[in-house]
Design a protein that fits this description.
The complex is a heterodimer of chains A (188) and B (864). Chain A is mainly α and 188 residues long. Chain A has one domain. Chain A has 8 helices and no strands. Chain B is α+β, with helices and mostly antiparallel strands and 864 residues long. In chain B, the strands form 2 sheets. In chain B, strands 1-2-3-4-6-5 form a 6-stranded antiparallel sheet, covered by helices on one side. In chain B, strands 7-8-9 form a 3-stranded antiparallel sheet. Chain B is globular. The N and C termini of chain B lie far apart (70 Å). Classes of the chains: A mainly alpha (188), B alpha+beta (864). Chains A and B meet through helix 2, helix 3, helix 4, helix 5 and helix 6 of A and helix 1, helix 4 and strand 2 of B.
């Protein structure tokens, strides 16, 4: 797995940042690994302690990438892809769940109040995803800022690093995104 | 929208949101003149700046992502709820966590009550868990406190899994409660003191919690007041893996549970858990309550990583940890000073240096709330800044920018904090004195904290994250700081004098010695003018100036300055004060450099006595003074006493620092060399090897410290006839010297000389001679013709020439060594006797395994 991932990551770098096929492949590799990691992390955490997406991503990175063979920029790419994976995972889940509800599936028993909250937010997640797709057509970089911040829990400074722009630029993108998405989501 | 138009909207929006709301209309009038669509677009977006969707807030999706990824709502059927567990009737589920499930349970007889029942899921030895619980049961039963949820019972269910029964608590974790209620700092402190009160109640009954963290401290409402209640007392001990507090690990070496609140001694698994372990966890909690973040962020839950961080890293000051956001600056100012000190005292790595009891911790918070100075002082290594500089000069000289920045920051802050804390102590004592006296002391304390604040700002502003990647060298950083304080502090000579002293010491720490001397002279001038020539602060600045002059190599000047500093501090603080003793150590270093070994010995002895009298034997100041003394004694040829002192110093360092520590590693390599001088080679070798291993563990392979230790190990190999091994090691050291040290550093000369002897041992005569000559030339150039180290190089050349069977040439070299030694040492000195003998009979200098007198022309790490 680790070999595979590192090689793909390198290939990705060689092919240029947004070669969609490579990204797709990386996502395919990343998804099950994140899922597995999350499961084991959740088992380890005690109640009252939420799983930090950033911790998850770092953990996944350590597992997947042979540190000795990749450059620092690869790490930035990795974090970018991980954020996309998180978004994808959340959206997939929300869609499935909504479908199940519409299909009159079995009433789910939840263990924890906050799952109720989460379920209530599925709609929001899907709405955000849609709005974000629209926004990306207008301001692609700002949309990525949102992805990194909201779905991977990254800080402004980390995002600046991943996107290779100044913190000020990220701040501006984030403010713009909040306003744009705020209007978009408010109207829905 | 077309891209140009969007860019325009974005630019105007970002500009408009920076303006006060009242000014926005005018701005938009001007910028959107004649373009109503543009203006409408902007006005439809701008209100969302202050009110954006909750889903975009920090951490809004964290939990969802975790849950979804872990697949909890998907596919996992909740466990069937049992009807009974033991005598308890189960009525519902309260929650679930890594350890197991918590049920709501009910008892009908003898009394009707509802409780929480925690069923442990992990595969534990139930009998032992229950037995451990039983052993503490009576103590647990004696606890009666509104802040403690009582643990009522323990047992095993039908499947043999252990369970605990507790008073049911309906409340939110304390961190969440504070966040939800948006409590002010004072309210948080009051709440925290209630927690302390409960923990203290348990401690007085001999019960330690061992797992204090927010999810175990729930805030309930009692009579309209918030009452924190601690749950799980006694459970951590009963369920610890072996009853010995070993951290529980997964097969991959990950830690089970939440390491964030765990104390260093728990992470170590040393079993030395006592009430101070809870004090540490409370310190983490207070840090989090005040700043919203944790003192350490673990990148992974790998055990080794956690243990390393807890052992080696120091927490940030809470005031510097406050995350960006509205009100952050005000909060940081609120925390700076007393609250920083209180929290950091609870978080010290060594239990002995934390608060002695939870009551003392709570009492300091009370003092703070009532506006009195607190007893917690910043870490006390400040007055050792001088020693830090000397000890780590090599490391500092070669380290990365980041490391240097941190080192400067640490030294400077430590120094100023130590001064502040002394003033604070005086302020505390002064409370009892007349009011004006107290006022004066208070003013001094204010000066100190003002300085500390200025300094922190300076470094925070210039730290890499705050300058968006702009590369600031340490030199620039300090230059900028010096310039700024000189501008800003005109008319405040007290603060200015102190700041310049701190900055001067910082220049010294990064080997900018000339500039350090310049700044310190200016500080001296200002302080002399405002305080008079005999004030203690003048003495302090002089002590720092002596360090800087030593760094420049002006030993004579340094000696004079150090003498004056000692005499002022003697008269003001008294000869028994540690700062005076430290200045005396500085004087001794220069006396030694000037060849006045007797004077150096006397001053080291006196400093050492003070350290012993003030702090007792168990402190590393005392250990360091012993090592300095041992170093001088060995130069004086008193090998036996020198060896004893190194031995004693090592024993202290090992007791003071449990585990690997640079001070221990330094003591090890010194003792190795001392053993060698006494011809105890086998012991020397194992000590030298331990030193290398320890340095490697601390700093990594091929770092300057490792090279030094490696050099000394190779010397032992050389003397015991393992020439090939010695050669390989020396070559490695040489490569590392060339990489890390300036080209005219004396160490290069020593290593070349040592290598020449290894080559000689291997029969590579010619190569040996050319290396020996290169070493000699290097040292003559760097240290001068008459330096004892130059004499040692002549002596080595003599040995090489004997090996090449050129006794007459060898004799000439030995004679030159003898001439130089005579300038420095008395007739009885072993080196002189050795040189005499070699002049008499060059054969006596022949390289032989384990037979050579080996008076040590080796490079050993500099003494403090």
């Amino acid at each position: 797995m680790s070999e595979d991932f590192t090689r793909t990551l390198r290939a990705m770098q060689a092919a240029g940042e947004d070669a969609p096929a490579v990204t797709e492949k990386l996502l395919g590799l990343l998804y099950p690994e994140l899922h597995r990691l999350a499961e084991s992390l959740m088992r380890r955490e005690r109640s009252g302690h939420t799983l930090q997406p950033t911790a998850l991503v770092h953990e996944a990175y350590l597992k997947l990438v042979d540190d000795t063979r990749v450059e620092w920029q690869d790490r930035a790419h990795f974090l970018g892809i991980a954020a996309r994976a998180m978004r994808q995972i959340l959206v997939d889940h929300a869609r499935k769940h909504q479908a199940a509800k519409r299909g009159g599936g079995m009433q789910r028993v939840t263990l924890d109040e906050s799952f109720g909250e989460a379920a209530g937010r599925e709609f929001e997640v899907l709405a955000l995803n849609e709005a974000l797709e629209k926004f990306a057509r207008v301001d692609e970089r700002a949309a990525r800022v949102v992805e990194l911040k909201v779905f991977a829990g990254m800080k402004i400074a980390e995002i600046a690093h991943v996107l290779d722009v100044s913190k000020r630029t990220v701040d501006g993108d984030w403010a713009m995104a909040r306003m744009w998405l705020g209007r978009e989501l408010g109207e829905n | 929208m077309d891209p140009d138009r969007y860019e325009r909207v974005k630019r105007l929006l970002l500009a408009a949101r920076e303006l006060p709301p009242a000014a926005r209309a005018t701005f938009l009038d001007r910028e959107c003149a004649g373009d109503d669509d543009l203006r409408r677009e902007i006005e439809s977006l701008l209100p969302h700046d202050s009110e954006s969707p909750s889903i975009l807030e920090d951490g809004a999706l964290e939990r969802d992502i975790g849950d979804v990824l872990a697949g909890v709502p998907e596919g996992i059927v909740p466990p069937a709820i049992p009807e009974h567990i033991g005598p308890w009737q189960i009525v519902g589920i309260l929650g679930e966590g890594g350890m197991g499930v918590v049920y709501r349970a009910r008892q009908e007889t003898p009394i009707r009550r509802e409780v929480a029942l925690k069923l442990i899921r992990r595969g534990l030895d139930t009998d032992r868990v229950v037995a451990r619980f039983e052993s503490e049961r009576r103590a647990l039963a004696r606890m009666e406190h509104p802040g403690i949820a009582r643990v009522l019972d323990a047992g095993a269910d039908a499947a043999g899994r252990p369970y605990f029964v507790m008073e049911a608590v309906d409340g939110a974790p304390i961190t969440e409660y504070c966040r939800n209620e948006a409590l002010a700092v004072e309210e948080r402190l009051e709440l925290f003191r209630l927690v302390c009160d409960a923990v203290s109640h348990a401690h007085r009954r001999g019960i330690i919690h061992r797992d204090l963290k927010p999810s175990n401290i729930l805030v309930t409402q009692a009579d309209g007041r918030a009452q924190p209640k601690i749950i799980d007392f006694g459970i951590a001990k009963a369920t610890s893996e072996s009853g010995t507090d070993e951290p529980a690990l997964t097969q991959e070496g990950h830690m089970i549970g939440t390491p964030e609140y765990m104390s260093p001694e728990q992470a170590d698994g040393s079993g030395n858990v006592d009430t101070r372990t809870d004090i540490y966890s409370l310190g983490v909690l207070l840090f989090e309550l005040l700043t919203g973040v944790l003192p350490y962020r673990f990148e992974t839950h790998r055990y080794l990583e956690i243990r390393r961080v807890l052992r080696e890293e120091f927490p940030r000051r809470p005031s510097l940890a406050v995350p960006e956001g509205p009100g952050a600056e005000r909060l940081a100012r609120r925390l700076a000073g007393d609250l920083d000190n209180v929290v950091l005292k609870a978080l010290r790595k060594e239990p002995d240096r934390r608060y002695g009891s939870v009551d003392a911790f709570a009492e300091d918070l009370r003092r703070h709330l009532e506006g009195h100075p607190v007893t917690a002082r910043p870490d006390t290594f400040g007055y050792r800044a001088g020693k830090f500089i000397r000890r780590h000069r090599l490391a500092v000289g070669a380290a990365s920018l980041l490391f240097v920045t941190l080192a400067v920051f640490t030294v400077a802050l430590a120094r100023i904090s130590a001064e502040a804390s002394r003033e604070r102590d005086r302020a505390l004592a002064a409370e009892e004195l007349a009011r004006e006296e107290a006022g004066r002391a208070q003013r001094e304390a204010e000066t100190a904290s003002r300085v500390s604040e200025l300094l922190e700002n300076l470094f925070v502003e210039a730290s890499p994250t705050e300058t968006s990647g702009e590369n600031v060298t340490v030199r620039e950083l300090l230059d900028r700081g010096t310039e700024r304080v000189e501008e800003d502090l005109q008319g405040e000579p007290d603060v200015l004098g102190r700041m310049l002293t701190v900055l001067g010491s910082a220049y010294n720490a990064v080997d900018q010695n000339e500039r350090a001397a310049e700044v310190l002279r200016e500080a001296l001038r200002i302080r002399e003018q405002s305080l008079g020539p005999d004030h203690a602060d003048v003495g302090r600045t002089l002590a720092a100036l002596a360090n800087a002059l030593h760094g420049v190599g002006d030993y004579e000047g340094a000696k004079q300055v150090a003498e004056r500093s000692v005499s002022i501090l003697d008269a003001t603080l008294g000869p028994g004060d540690v700062e005076t003793a430290d200045a005396r150590g500085g004087l001794a270093v220069n006396l030694q450099a000037l060849g006045d070994l007797a004077g150096a010995e006397e001053n080291f002895r006196r400093a050492s006595e003070v350290f012993l009298a003030v702090n007792g034997e168990e402190n590393d100041d005392y250990a360091w003074s012993l090592m300095s003394l041992a170093y001088v004694l060995s130069a004086e040829g008193e090998y036996s006493e020198s060896q004893e002192l190194y031995e004693k110093a090592l024993a202290i360092q090992e007791r003071v620092h449990a585990g690997p520590h640079s001070d221990v590693a330094i003591a090890l390599t010194h003792l190795a060399m001392a053993r060698g001088r006494m011809h105890r080679w086998a012991e020397a070798e194992s000590l030298a090897q331990r030193s290398v291993d320890m340095f490697r563990q601390i700093y990594g392979e091929d770092t300057p410290s490792v090279s030094l230790a490696r050099h000394n190990l190779a010397v032992v190999q050389l003397e015991t006839g393992h020439y090939a091994e010695a050669k390989a090691e020396f070559e490695r050291v040489l490569a590392s010297n060339r990489k890390d040290l300036p080209p005219d550093h004396p160490y290069l000369g020593y290593t070349l000389g040592s290598l020449s002897l290894a080559e000689l041992g291997l029969g590579h005569d010619e190569r040996a001679e050319s290396l020996a000559r290169e070493s000699l030339a290097h040292l003559r150039r760097v240290l001068g013709d008459d330096h004892p180290r130059t004499a040692a190089a002549w002596f080595r050349l003599g040995r090489v020439l004997v090996g090449r069977n050129r006794p007459d040439d060898a004799r000439r070299a030995f004679r030159e060594a003898d001439r130089i030694y005579a300038l420095h040492y008395p007739e009885s000195h072993p080196k002189r006797q050795e040189a005499h003998a070699a002049v008499e009979d060059p054969e006596s200098g022949r390289l032989r395994a384990s037979a050579s007198p080996s008076t040590g022309d080796w490079a050993t790490p500099e003494g403090p």
